[in-house]
């Protein structure tokens, strides 16, 4: 029977007033008169924590920042993916260095309906942003809150709060720390068709193997390849 009830939690009622400090379960057991028998309570553990989704561009040899002198091949298909990737997202989380360029740039795009990237700039500006920084003394960013303190516990607290998913775009050091503390749940990596040979990587702080499951793979006509992964837990 247990095998047929995937997603349910099995508990056994005892004569104690509480089972596992959950009076709610005991009330159910009492109502069902199932003393000494297993009862099943629907649980949805996936909703106990918001997911952090990471989206970044990367060279085929694994560098986020590297020397590249070629043209920008980003096209409308990639833009449409980026817009769709914001579905079920109500927060954008950034490091301070990225926020200083990200927030004003996309605000300018969002204010110009004729801009090429307006369909992306509008949601990127409208979605509330959170910047983690222990250095910012005064918040000058629009539609943005600042959090500070211990890195790991601050982000874990943010994930535990009620809401939709959280999108992260950078920067490199900030993302490296998120990965170091195993705080990223989904990876959307846009691989550009070039090799930099050297540069910055988001995986340089790893001390243990990061196991991922492939969610999807899509090649865009421009040559960019999207690889979406989910963290194995």
- Radius of gyration over C-alpha positions, nearest whole angstrom: 22 Å
User: How many H/I helices?
Assistant: 6
Number of domains: 2
Low-confidence stretches are 1-46
Q: What's the level 1 CATH class of the largest domain?
A: Alpha Beta
Mean pLDDT: 82
Relevant CATH superfamily of the largest domain: Dihydrofolate Reductase, subunit A
Explain what the structure shows.
With 233 residues, this protein is of the alpha/beta class. The chain folds into two domains: 42 residues, no CATH class; 184 residues, Dihydrofolate Reductase, subunit A (3-Layer(aba) Sandwich), CATH 3.40.430. It is 27% helix and 26% strand. The protein has six helices and ten strands; from the N terminus they run βαββαβααββαβαβββ. It has an eight-stranded mixed beta sheet. α3 crosses α4.
Task: List its traits.
single chain; 233 residues; alpha/beta; Dihydrofolate Reductase, subunit A; 2 domains; eight-stranded mixed sheet; two-stranded antiparallel sheet; 6 helices; 27% helix; disordered N terminus
Secondary structure blueprint with pairings:
Layout: E1 8-12, H1 23-32, E2 38-42, E3 52-59, H2 76-84, E4 89-95, H3 96-110, H4 118-126, E5 129-132, E6 144-147, H5 151-160, E7 165-170, H6 172-180, E8 186-192, E9 212-219, E10 225-231
Parallel strand pairs: 3-7, 3-8, 4-5, 4-7, 5-6
Antiparallel strand pairs: 1-2, 8-10, 9-10
Helix pairs in contact: 3-4
């Amino acid at each position: 029977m247990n095998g047929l009830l995937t997603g349910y939690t099995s508990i056994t009622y005892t004569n104690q007033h509480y089972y596992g400090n959950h009076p709610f379960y005991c009330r159910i057991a009492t109502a069902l008169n199932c003393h000494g028998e297993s009862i099943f309570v629907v649980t949805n553990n996936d909703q106990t924590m918001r997911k952090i989704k990471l989206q970044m561009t990367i060279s085929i040899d694994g560098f986020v920042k590297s020397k590249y002198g070629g043209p920008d091949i980003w096209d409308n298909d990639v833009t449409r993916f980026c817009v769709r990737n914001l579905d079920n997202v109500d927060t954008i989380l950034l490091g301070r260095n990225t926020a200083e360029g990200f927030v004003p740039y996309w605000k300018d795009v969002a204010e110009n309906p004729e801009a090429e990237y307006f369909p992306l700039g509008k949601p990127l500006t409208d979605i509330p942003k959170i910047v983690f920084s222990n250095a910012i003394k005064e918040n000058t960013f629009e539609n943005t809150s600042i959090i500070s303190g211990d890195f790991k516990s601050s982000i874990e607290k943010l994930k535990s709060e009620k809401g939709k998913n959280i999108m992260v775009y950078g920067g490199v050091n900030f993302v490296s720390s998120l990965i170091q503390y195993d705080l990223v749940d989904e990876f959307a990596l846009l691989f550009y068709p070039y090799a930099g040979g050297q540069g910055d990587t988001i995986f340089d702080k790893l001390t243990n193997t990061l196991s991922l499951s492939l969610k999807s793979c899509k090649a865009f006509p421009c040559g960019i390849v999207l690889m979406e992964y989910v963290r194995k837990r």
